[in-house]
Write a structure and sequence with these properties.
lipid binding; single chain; membrane; cell wall; Major outer membrane lipoprotein Lpp; palmitate; 2 helices; mainly alpha; 93% helix
Length: 87
Amino acid sequence: MNRSLTILSGVILSAALMGCSSSDEVDQMQQLTNKVDMLSDQVSALQSQQDQMAGAVNDSRAASDAAYQEAMRANQRIDNIAGSYTK
């Protein structure tokens, strides 16, 4: 009798513990996992955009340097023409 009572109380206690861990906690855990996945995707997208912007800045810097060098050469040519002109 004691043995069957112990087994029966163990089964009832196990069932009660299973009832305490409701599916709400599992749903909340799944929602949090989904949010973390979504944030990870957003971070990787932002990292990609930042890399693209850094590349564009470098391209702009190179174009600016090239334009500056061309302007300096044009100014030098104008200075040479003005220096060789006599009236």
